Amino acid sequence: MNREFRQTVIAGNWKMNMLASEVNAFSERLGTLVPGFRDWCGVVVCAASVLLPAAVKAFESIGVGVGAQNMNQHESGAYTGEVSAGQLADIGVGYAIIGHSERRELYSETDATVNQKVLATLKSPLRPIVCVGESLSQREIGVTGDIVAMQIKMALHGVAAEEVRKVIIAYEPIWAIGTGKTATPEDAQEVCRAVRNILASLYSDEIAKVITIQYGGSMNEKNALELLAQPDIDGGLIGGASLRPESFAAIINAANQ
Ligand code: PEP
To answer: Which long-range contacts (CB under 8 A, 24 or more apart) does 33-37 make?
Structure first.
């Protein structure tokens, strides 16, 4: 983390878990475990669409932002079953995960749709959390840097310098998501540093310096401190460990010191 230049953001991704009736108890417990957040440390919970109104209400009182896990790239219209950035912002949602590897793999999201969604969030009050990362075979072949560079260039195509500061990048090696296998702090740092270099080449050193880059992939209460100590890792996107207030709080506390 480098608190001098950029905000640390710890974001939970609840995926298709939790019920609306469980949100209040989670928020109350989290509030007791993490009594206050520093102004440089943002905390976000990304919940399933149906939970978002309850989450906005419950988390507001403890200063935790709420994010969606996906959204449609269009403003409005005949897109049955979809939700727009404007609709999310209207109910108080502040963030949207874009291009999570599960959506890329299971719902055929491409770099082109990720780009359209990023552009749509930037026309709204939402901050996009843009996920990039390599598969195990890509890592073994040695193309991690190329894959991540292409994903970032595609995701940010047409994003102006004055807008890109709103973007959060989450580096999530696919082989580490939900598997219990975490990238070593050194490996995660190396790719997050490479991400910052790509941002510098697309924009400028000054802009790259202020963009929040998270690591995601089996981050938990045991490994968070070491990962967050890396200079280019400015937070985490956390799946499994965000479902228990105790483990999520431990990660927040590791960042919030
Ligand atoms: C994720 O869903 O983005 C994620 C990183 O999950 P987990 O922490 O469970 O690996």
So the answer is: 33/245, 33/246, 33/249, 33/253, 34/62, 34/249, 34/252, 34/253, 34/256, 36/63, 37/63, 37/64, 37/252, 37/256
Atom number of ligand 1 nearest to Cα 15 = 2
- Residues annotated as catalytic are 100, 172
Q: What are phi and psi of 84, to 5 degrees?
A: -95, 165
Ligand 1 closest atom vs CA 241: 8
Question: How confident is the model over 168-218, as pLDDT tens digits?
Answer: 999 999 999 989 888 899 999 999 999 999 999 999 999 999 999 999 999
Q: What is the mean pLDDT of residues 66-73?
A: 98
Q: What is the largest CA-CA distance in the chain?
A: 47
Residues 163, 122: contact at Cβ < 8 Å? yes
179 CA closest ligand 1 atom index: 10
Task: Give the residues surrounding ligand 1 with Cβ less than 6 Å away.
Answer: 13, 172, 177-178, 216-219, 237-241
pLDDT tens, 123-139? 999 999 999 999 999 99
List the alpha helices (DSSP H) in the chain.
20-33, 52-60, 85-90, 101-106, 111-122, 136-141, 144-155, 161-164, 185-202, 205-210, 224-228, 245-255
Q: Residue 53's closest CA among 91, 15, 6?
A: 91
Instruction: Check: pTM over 0.90? Answer yes or no.
Output: yes
pLDDT at site 194: 98
* Position 256 confidence tier, pLDDT thresholds 50, 70, 90: confident
C-alpha 46 – ligand 1 centre gap (Å)? 12
Closest residue by Cα to atom 7, ligand 1, is 239
CA neighbor of 67 nearest in space, from 41, 45, 100: 45
